[in-house]
Amino acid sequence: RNTASSGIIDPVRNPESEFSLNAKRGSRMVMQKRLSEVRKMKAEDTANIQGTAIGNVLGVNHSEAKPQLQSDKDPKNAIKVTREEILASRKSLPAYRVRSQLLQVIRDNQVVVVIGETGSGKTTQLGQFLYEDGFCDDGFMVGCTQPRRVAAMSVAARVAMEMDVQLGDKVGYSIRFEDKTSPATKIKFMTDGILLRETLLDKMLDKYSCIIIDEAHERTLNTDVLLGIFKELLSRRRDLKLIITSATMNANKFSQFFGDAPQFTIPGRTFPVEIIYTRHPVSDYVESAVTQAAKIHLSTPISSGDILIFMTGQEDIEATCSGLREKLLDVYTKKNSHNDNNEPNDIEIIPIYSSLPADVQNKIFMLMNGKRKVVVATNIAETSLTVDGVKYVIDCGYAKLKVYNPQIGLDSLRITPISFASANQRSGRAGRTGPGVAYRLYTEDSAYEDMYLETIPEIQRTNLSNTLLLLKSFGVDDVMKFPFIDPPPRKTIMTSLFELWTIGALDNLGFLTKLGTLMASFPLQPSLSKILLISAQSGCSEEILTIVAMLSVPQVFYRPKERKEESDQARSRFFVPESDHLTLLNVYSQWKANAYSFHWCRRNFLQYKSLQRAHDIRRQLSRVMVKKNIPILSSGSDWDTVRKCICSGYAQQAAKLSGLSKYVHLKTGMELQLHPTSALFGAGDLPPYIVYHELLLTSKEYINVVTSVDPFWLVEYGILFYNVKRRVEETDEFDVDQPSHGIKDKLDLQIDACNTRKKDVLRKLAT
Ligand code: CDP
Ligand code: MG
Question: Which of 493, 80, 419 has its CA nearest to residue 219?
């Protein structure tokens, strides 16, 4: 297995790897050390965290004797579910049983915190209750936010089904780049990011009578910001109701934040879950999960229950799925049992992660014809999605986390140990319909040593440039005073402001510039909206539009396990050796030249759906461009202009070649590896300077989607880091030579930090 690209750390092959998950205590300690950065960022309130007792038995909610849908009873006839049956299954949910009391509390209070175990019906029922109770009369809507796109889509589909309406009609959803609502929509599910953007356009949120901030315990960045915005908005709109739903953790905090808002707990009965830790540290959690799942499947009757496996992300999920498939096939072939060729026929293995298309994701809710369901998921299945019928949980103990180090201004994705609260949530999934078993692929000792009690809220461990840009355009000038439920570290706010300033989004006094205002109108991270805007000036916005759209979709290259070589060859035919960005542009252009053909995609090992989505996103972005009077121009075959433009947004994410194949980060000196799939490997010698789109920390520091740049461009666009006195041309608002007092006072530290690094970097640039 290619440990690098599959994201799995194989300590045998990677004995040096710092990030090795070789859980000899030592290695975990190394990860621990890295985590200390995150820990330092954690705000003071460890004391507030409720100790989550971890025992061998967990109390878990259960929805009592839920009437089985017809299709449950007779899987062979898994076709029609009658209205009565749907209603019966609704009525069996714990939330339904307290419907009238719940509605009363909502009527009596402006803010209510609703607490209930996962699966009790908060997400699917609340909106319907409100709808039935008249909250959508007089042209009003009920909005329900979800931290995750997948959940927004699938829950909307479920509610539409329960209400017997077409999805997108009375019940709809809206996620970034995809709006499935209509003027008739009454219950709207959306990501928290979408509602945040809506508040920009309509500060009073006039069309809503009630907003449900769902899964608030997840504490995503956008949810936290929304809570702050609502704190003020609620006094301006006395008629607007706010419901915050949360799994059992964190509820007090939400109540207190909204002036001791009442808490309503949905009662639920519990089933015990037995927790089994590994006796020894595991060296490869994918392998262990596969072994454990196979063992369960082969030693228990299928009817005993389904299996839910928690992994960190797409790569290890795919590896687990194919690993399990192979393992079972192997066993069946040896047993000589009847089976079709490449699929074990008594099991349905279903991956679930955010970039999967909706139809594939919905498979987790389908009933299988007498087969056992094995769902391999990211932490999306912790609370957002409830898979019924799970009896066994296998938990790898890790999650992919966005981490920001404000000291050096570095953003990255890291695989980190989960918190106790997460571990308990994960285990709890096993006991919804009966007693269950949770296998934890780590030792009890390491759990105690490595895990936080609770996950650090995203706002305290992420780059805030994007959020601050939004807040500024929302009219919040002094972001330090914004009512955050847990304030982010001051340092992070400073660095993020500084970043916005360096890309010209803020002026010397910290106010939005024209460029910044325009940047905020795109639903993109600041670096990408900057590239788009610059491209209009340098005459290559046609091309950059495509690149930005392609960066906003999941992997376009398709690499089936059994045809790796063939697909790698196909991929390399698209390579533009100086740039992965241009490679993406090339793929799209050729697809376009081939009439956006599906068959052409298949022949070339490209994901048709991803390309289609890029096409759609491109259209939406160009609509924003047209609306804002930003010209869409093509530079034709002049791809150097495109590369220079790319450099303008990524000047802080630059690296210099060191040796034959390694890069060092220009700002931080950190060693970086090109991702093995990069087009830059196609050209022989690697270019001396590059910028990158994304930094991924697994066993190594990988940079993903890379473009070779001219060092003089870096000087031009990264003037503040690389200390060459020249003005950045598009922002007449700020003058690098004379930062005014206001900004200097505010940003002193960062400027100093840059100054101390300047010589260093200049030396690097000079050599
Ligand atoms: O939000 P909460 O965790 O309290 O529960 P929910 O998501 O409203 O789920 C209530 C029930 O609906 C569970 O039994 C889910 O399995 C089911 N459900 C479903 O069958 N299909 C969906 N797309 C979503 C929920
Ligand atoms: Mg829910």
Answer: 419
User: How far is Cα 451 from Cα 398, in angstroms, rounded to an integer?
Assistant: 10
Mutate to test the pocket of ligand 1, among 60, 120, 148, 158 (most ligand atoms within 8 A of CB): 158
Ligand 1 center to 374 CA (angstroms): 18
Consecutive H or E run containing 376: strand 372-377
Instruction: Specify the range with the lowest mean pLDDT, choosing from 331-340, 370-379, 676-685.
Output: 331-340
From the CA of 393, how far away is ligand 2's center (Å)?
19
In this structure, the residues whose C-beta lies within 6 A of any atom of ligand 1 are 93, 116, 118-125, 154-155, 158, 365, 386, 388
Which positions ≥6 away from 696 have C-beta within 8 Å? 7, 412, 413, 675, 702, 703, 704
Residue minimizing CA distance to atom 15 of ligand 1: 386
User: Quick one: DSSP state of residue 504?
Assistant: T
The tens digit of pLDDT for each residue in 309-322 reads 999 988 899 999 99
Spatial separation of the C-alpha atoms in residues 87 and 70, rounded to whole Å:
13
Which token pair is 241? 């109701």
Pairing between β-strand 410-417 and β-strand 689-697 as defined by DSSP bridges? parallel
Q: Is the pLDDT of residue 385 over 50?
A: yes
The Å distance, Cα 255 to ligand 1 centre, comes to: 25
Residue nearest to ligand 1 atom 14, measured at CA:
119
| Strand bridging mode 306-310 / 390-395 | parallel
Given this model, what pLDDT does residue 635 score?
94
Rounded CA gap, 549 and 556, in Å? 12
Ligand 1 centroid, distance to 247 Cα (angstroms): 14
The per-residue b/e assignment along 362-394, b for 16 or more CB within 10 angstroms, e otherwise, is bebbebbeebbbbbbbbbbbbbbbbbbbbbbbb
Q: Which residue has the least CA distance to atom 8 on ligand 1?
A: 121
Of 617, 550, 558, the residue nearest 586 (C-alpha): 550
The full length of the chain comes to 767
Q: Which of 89, 350, 386 to mutate to test the pocket of ligand 1 (most atoms within 8 A of CB)?
A: 386
Compute the distance from residue 127 Cα to the ligand 1 centre, in Å.
13
Atom 13 (ligand 1) nearest CA: 119
Which atom number of ligand 1 is nearest to the Cα of residue 116?
4
Does the pLDDT of residue 85 top 90, yes or no? no
Q: Residue 319: CB partners within 8 Å, gap ≥ 6?
A: 1, 6, 7, 8, 286
H helical segments located in 402-489? 420-428, 444-450, 465-473
| Residues in Cβ contact with 166 at an 8 Å cutoff, skipping those fewer than 6 apart | 160
| pLDDT at res. 726 | 35
Contact 540, 642 (CB under 8 A): yes
pLDDT for the residue 71? 37
Confidence of residue 337 (pLDDT cuts 50, 70, 90): low
Give the atom of ligand 1 at the shortest distance from the alpha carbon of 384.
3
Name the residue of 89, 124, 352 to mutate for ligand 1: max ligand atoms within 8 A of Cβ.
124
Structure tokens at 745: 């006072």
Cβ within 8 Å of residue 107, ≥6 positions away: none
> From ligand 1's centre to the CA of 111, what distance in Å?
23
Pairing of strands 398-405, 372-377: unpaired
Query: From CA 416, how far away is CA 662, in angstroms rounded?
Result: 24
State the pLDDT at residue 651. Answer: 84
